[in-house]
Amino acid sequence: MELNNIETCDNEQVNSNSEETSTNQWRLKCFQKRKLIWIIISIVLLILIIIIPIIVIKTKKTDVKQMSTTVITTETLTKLTTEETRPKYKKYNQQGITVAGGNGEGDGLNQLFDPSNIIIDENKAILIVDKGNDRIVEWKYGSNNGQIIAGGNRTGDENDQLCYLMDMIDDKENDALIIFEFGKNRIVRWFRKNQTYHKILVFGVLPIHLAMDKNGSIYISEIGQNEVRRWKDGDTTHGILVAGGNGKGEESNQLNSPTHLSFDDEGNLYVVDQYNHRIQKFQISYD
């Protein structure tokens, strides 16, 4: 009886140990499965953490590229459109062509000496103030030589002589040139056809510059008097004052050594006010 009890106890102990072992093995397996699942989840999360930013960055780069392409395309189209609508100009030739003179200083018909002013007429001929030779020369288009149309007979007081020319304007209406001779302090009208001149005015002032308005009146800038005057055919005086004449100064009604003159299409007079470092505009009354 006791022996049976002992065996029964042993069997129960064995069964108990066996169940405990089985439970431990099950727990171990469950733990391993859980561990595996967590490892898999961790790996997936890690992959997602790595992949998602890469996808976002690539997407942004694609968007930027598309935007850049759009901008470049727009700029290109704008440039092409601008180039198509912009007037096309030929590139200028930086190499000049001698069209008058260029044969050294001298008084030959193919030479000039200290030229100071030019006029291009309707036939493309060049009218040149050849100051050093006291003459006006006409250089026809394509010619190798000039033709003397005024002066050229040395300095003097004779009708065919000029003295130290300073300025010249074209008087088309009378087929003449208006010439200022500084050496004689006078302004003359030199008729081109008969090679004669008519004295207009005599001045005892510093060098003068000339201009002509649409009505044929002559404008004279007097540097020494700091004024601009207008002279019309038939005037017996020095003309009327149109600008300056209030002493040397920088006020709006004053000039300081006026030099070159010019007119716009509306008949306004522009004066180079040299030592005031400005250009003055004057509205002229043509009454």
From TrEMBL:
Positions of transmembrane segments: 36-57
Record PROSITE patterns: NHL
InterPro entries, sorted: 6-blade_b-propeller_TolB-like, NHL_repeat, TRIM-NHL_E3_ligases
Official protein name in the record: NHL repeat containing protein
NHL repeats: 248-285
GO molecular function terms noted in the UniProt entry: zinc ion binding
UniProt keyword annotations, A-Z: Membrane, Repeat, Transmembrane, Transmembrane helix
